[in-house]
Amino acid sequence: MKNIMGFKHKFAYSFFNFEAYREFLIQGLRKSILYVFLVTLLFSTITNVKEINMIATEISLIQNVLVNNAPNFELKNGVLSVNSDETIYYKHEGDFLFDLISTFMGNINTVNSLDSDTLSIQDKRENDPSTFDTDGSIINVDSNQLNYYTFIIDTKGKTDKSILNSYKDAVFIDSSSIYLRKNYRTAGTINFSDFPSINIDNEGSGYYLSIIKTLTPMVLLVVTPINSFIINLILGLLIFGPLAISIGSFMGVKLKYSRACTLSFYAMSLPLLLEALIHVAGIIIPEFFLIFCIITLIYCSLAIREIKNIDKSKLNLMR
């Protein structure tokens, strides 16, 4: 297996040719780290293409709503004014806007508790999360949608933040603040008075969204692969490497730490591929990390079994 040197050979053989793992060990830890970096970069790029397209589509939708459907509004001197006498209910499909608000709240660290006043039966019926009011009409929507969020805007004081109690994921905006509810729990508050220098209206919001739409792909294509690589590196060095040593000891093969980590990085190939495919397919598996770990350790075990009878004087597993 001495000819197995290129990335494409390593990638292909890591799935089924456990004899190749002996060559991987000979090439050393540095090349295994480079390998997992390239695999991470490849899969991150694939998943980011879908993510970028979804975000661009969602931002375009928001821009269209602001131009064609939303009433005129202005945020000035820490006060929001909206040219509407009625409470606005906007059903939004897509995670980006909701996550952006949630992340911003986390960054400014202004988490406040909302009142848990019980809504009246009439409020619950009129503001049930299965309905959405845009132009005075009520439209039924599928309450099973995973990326369904409700934005409620009222700057006239006809309702208050307690309306969020009837929603799983929703945002309430009044003249002074933005309140976020996430997974039936209060996530935080943004007070407009904390940003008195910000002046924004329909036209300005569209401009800033265009900037975000331009910058987001660059950020995702750079930050996400680096972040994923660091995570995979930590998994290999701190979790799978030590566990591979334990597996080797149980199977009668003594592995040095660097050798065990080398095996682990190549053993992560299939789980990383599955992770990318699941993400692209839009499938949510809450227990996938456990599956990821199990598959990696199985591959480590199969690789160790393959090298068990190797001439250790040549391979130097403990060097």
Can you characterise this structure?
- Strand 7 and strand 8 form a beta hairpin.
- Helix 3 packs across helix 7, helix 3 packs parallel to helix 8 and helix 6 packs across helix 7.
- The chain starts with 6 loop residues before the first helix and ends with a helix.
- The strands form three sheets. Strands 3-6-7-8-9 form a five-stranded mixed sheet, covered by helices on one side.
- About 12% of the residues have low confidence.
- It contains ten helices and ten strands.
- The radius of gyration is 26 Å and the shape is elongated.
- By secondary structure, it is α+β, with helices and mostly antiparallel strands.
Which structural traits does this protein have?
319 residues; alpha+beta; five-stranded mixed β-sheet; 55% helix
Give me the secondary-structure category: alpha+beta
Q: What's the average pLDDT?
A: 83
Strand percent estimate: 5-15%
Which sequence of strands runs across the widest sheet?
3-6-7-8-9
**Gross morphology:** elongated
H-E string: HHHEEEHHEEEEEEEHHHHH
Main pleated-sheet profile: 5 strands, mixed
Oligomer: single chain
How many angstroms does the end-to-end distance come to? 21 Å
* Total number of helices: 10
Radius of gyration: 26 Å
